[in-house]
Amino acid sequence: MPNVVIVGAQWGDEGKGKVVDIYTEYADDVIRFQGGNNAGHTLVVGDQKTILHLIPSGILHPGKRCIIGNGVVLDPRVFIKEIEGLKARGYMQDDGQLVIDGNVHIIMPWHTAIDIAREEAKGDRKIGTTGRGIGPAYEDKIGRRGIRLNDLVRPDVFARKVDEYLPEKNFLLEKFLGKPPLDRDAIIDEYSTYAETLKKYLGCSSTLLGQSVKEGRNLLFEGAQGALLDIDHGTYPFVTSSSTVAGGACTGSGIGPRHLDQVIGISKAYVTRVGSGPFPTELHDEMGDALRKAGQEFGSTTGRPRRCGWFDAVALREAVRTSGLTGLAITKLDVLNDLETIKICTGYSYRGDMLEHFPRDFEVLRECKPIYEELEGWQSDISEAKSLDALPAAARAYLDKLAEVAGCPPVLISVGPRRDQTIQLSNPFA
């Protein structure tokens, strides 16, 4: 049976939550494979909005198994609050619906404290971190000094590791960053209560997924952030701390690459970015403000206003290549409803030269100027369109152009935030 990976094809915030929610209908297991609560997936079911930060978007569907893979870093406080919120609204009545891999790394209080203090110390050189402790948690994971869920649920192991790591963290906080130290006993007391709740969800994603493959179950892998924020392939250093490209689905869940069949990239019909970093098509004028207002472009995790710009085909082609995209889900097409003309960036100009490929060199990228092609807008409401033929000719022409310049066919078009405001052109699970 088909197994499908969903990744962001821009700088995040592309609408992955809605697309995962739609494709969950065809899946048996939904797996989150990287990132932490620096991501927020917004879902609208009927008139009810749900924002999830850690739990896979498939949790709103009864009978679906949701797995948090080993590639995720997990803040227990945020996770438990999310669980409580879902249960209060009638979701997730069966705890067996959710599994957390025992090798998930735990975000500790020192991670958030260091994250915030470092960003404050940068002054005007800030990278735009959410301050959720994600980067420092991944640092400790790579440095082999992390605390995993398997450690947290064993009181003696957890206490030993806190005693081993906390003195170094307090030294950094006090002596270098000028912040107060953290209390050892308070941390152990607080996190021991979290362990009791998390224990019931403990499992092994790799073993479960291996069994699912044998049984022919459909797997849906849910990424966070976007391909251009990948730690290796993004606009470094203005990136996140995990592998956001499709290859991260394998390392972040314990499944082999031969079991992945389709990779769907999510892209807005324009582009947004949160935080600092190069953004060639960014609009600093009234048009940028209009896109932000029409698209309600404010971070679901931080509330920060998103930077807005025209669709960037050069950047998208980078995501097509690095993630091996087999199809595109185009979201928020309706945000462009009122525009008389719409621009698409098809290339960059760099010191007089034409670039068709996304520069990996940050110093080059920040000097790139977009080369635009202008298309006619449709200036009509498309939010209730149920098929491609129901869209205005200008909207269909815009979609055709996006597919042409991106080099990847569209498989889904979102014309509004609700589940039913979606045009499916093909089903990756078919």
UniProtKB/TrEMBL annotation:
GTP binds at residues 12-18, 40-42, 306, 332-334, 414-416. The active site is at 13 (proton acceptor), 41 (proton donor), 141. Pfam families: Adenylsucc_synt. PROSITE patterns: ADENYLOSUCCIN_SYN_1, ADENYLOSUCCIN_SYN_2. One of its GO terms (molecular function) is magnesium ion binding. It catalyses: IMP + L-aspartate + GTP = N(6)-(1,2-dicarboxyethyl)-AMP + GDP + phosphate + 2 H(+). Mg(2+) binds at residues 13, 40. SUPFAM superfamilies: P-loop containing nucleoside triphosphate hydrolases (SSF52540). The keyword Ligase applies. Homodimer. This is Adenylosuccinate synthetase. The gene is purA.
